[in-house]
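Subject: for your reference before the review

Hello V.,

The reviewers asked for a structural picture of the protein, and I figured it would be easier to keep everything in one thread rather than splitting it across files. Below is the amino acid sequence we used in the manuscript, unchanged from the supplementary table.
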Amino acid sequence: MGIWQQRPRDDHPTERVVAFDIETIVQDEPTDGSFPPIPRHQPVAAAFLAATRGTDGAHSFRLNVLVCHHNEEEAFYRKVDACLPAGVVGIGWNSKGFDLPVLRLQAMSHHLFGLPGLARQAQAGRYDTTHCDLADQMSGYGSSRTLSLAAVCETLKIPVKTSIHGSDVGALWRAGDVEAVLGYVAEDTIATWIVWLHWAAWKNADPAELALPLADFAVWLQTAPDLKPFRGFADCPPARWALAHAPGFRAARAFADAELRLAQERDEQAFAASAH
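And here is what came back from the structure prediction:
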């Protein structure tokens, strides 16, 4: 009788995640509009949004936006690596098919091999909980046609690609408009994370997985002065829904925790009484 290998579970933890995206340029872009092969892409910007749920249930966030100028590649890739520490779940959109292969190959081309965080993400298997490629997940691992991030965000009413598109990055970069490129990659990263929240809530059949972190994120955006360019995410329909429903979910979770503690105390008292 043969031994069948069971597919690993893809139940990605939600306590510590890092959503990310990169932008690249290509020298001598094709005139026919075709998408150049991966080896021709040079990363020029990347953004990483780290979201961590504390023991009290509150979420903390950190947004790192990186730029990669010529002759600064080593510093860029080491910063990328630092943004992907052990224990986090990496979140991307078509990240297994593009972002991670590009980062891995270009890091190799600069003889940078001691990057354990990036390597952990790039080498993660399709069903590995180390990384979640949302494009793969949303297509049912290829069962249906792969959707674009823009199409998914349009349906979920998440603002994304509102001013520029990925095809504009090369021209903007060559024109010296670095800030536009950095803003664009940050917006895509935030949008990817909000899609992840929707997916996690659906997978776990728990709307609190969307409401609680997104409500905390909206408050963070509204109160941090340096995040003013991204405050549109705090007022989008999903964020407004989250802010309205988060108090109820917090109360329900607090009640459930209190019930659990009481049950534990009763069990401990019963055990102590039976020991005498």
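For the response letter, the relevant points are probably these. The first helix runs from residue 73 to 82. The first strand starts at residue 16 and ends at 26.

Happy to draft the paragraph if you're swamped.

O.
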